[in-house]
Amino acid sequence: MRYTMFGHTGHRVSSLGFGAMNLPGVPFEQAKAALNYALDEGINYIDTAAGYRNSEEIIGESISHRRSEFFLATKTKNRDYASAMEDMERSLKRMKTDVIDLVQIHYVNTVQEFKAAMNEGGAYEAALEMKRKGYIRFIGITGHRPELLAKWIAKRQFDQVLFHLNLAQPFSLDELIPEATRLNMGKTAMKPLSGGFIQPVSKAMRYPYSQDVHVVLSGMVSVEEVKENLAAIREEVGDDERRELEALAAELGNHNCRRCNYCTCPLEIKIPDVMISSQIRKTLGLLPKGDEFYQINKDKILSCADYEPCKDKPLCEQQCPYHLPMRQMVMEAANAYDKQLTTR
């Protein structure tokens, strides 16, 4: 396991981090076994959030007796002082700890949200107070718009930043990661599989592992998944492999979707999932979770072509800050169902 100094925090963290978001979806004993196995194998960065159902309770019940062995990060999605304070106080109790290493202001994607969290009476003020009292050690920020995060962290108010980085979303490399490096901040990359789309897992994990980040956060739910992720990063990435992975990322990132989720769809089509998986599907094929997404959402995707209000001027495209051809990509996904039928 590779360990690096986590920015200016003074903590050495493992290159693979345990993302606990999906633990509430599996039996408790399975989640407990995965967490303890991860610690046994040297993973020392555990990440969750107040809003991840009972993930924090699972951590508290499973590994609070090993608290000295890991760096603990959680998040609050609330923007106001009172609600954020409630989240942090509840997180301490749920995870059975006296101190949380890192609290992140979670899922900040608009200027309005950032201002709400950072202004007087906002979530950041609550985090500062908890830090002064010794209940949290560091403050971070997370979001899905790397170019905005790069501007926000420049104010030197955060110790860490959490962002997407995978073969289909390499956009944080442009401005965000260099800025975080310049500021000596903790750099945590999430979604190495892009939410379960990119395969093989070994190739998907090795791309963010090859970049200038401290922790690659993977949402593992079993001992087997921990083993699979550890195996993927057992060896360092050489120059030739790095160039190959970066060329693949340039190809798979052609969709240009940052998953900022501005694009609400009246048909409830999950447009970012369609956009991001589009090139992955053509080039690498999808993991079972990705194939399942297309089966579950088949009717919604097929109905897009006949939705009258979007025929002349798609509603989703009017909301996109990157002006992406969303309807065209959804139509291509719909056409893929017809091709599946004709090839059987």
Automatic annotation (TrEMBL):
Molecular function (GO) terms listed?
oxidoreductase activity
**A Pfam family of this chain:** Aldo_ket_red
Q: Which residues form a coiled coil?
A: none
Instruction: Kindly give the InterPro entries that the UniProt entry links to this protein.
Output: AKR, AKR2_Oxidoreductase, NAD(P)_OxRdtase_dom_sf, NADP_OxRdtase_dom
**Where is each NADP-dependent oxidoreductase domain found?**
16-200
Under what name is this protein listed?
Aldo/keto reductase family protein
Could you tell me which species this protein originates from? Paenibacillus naphthalenovorans
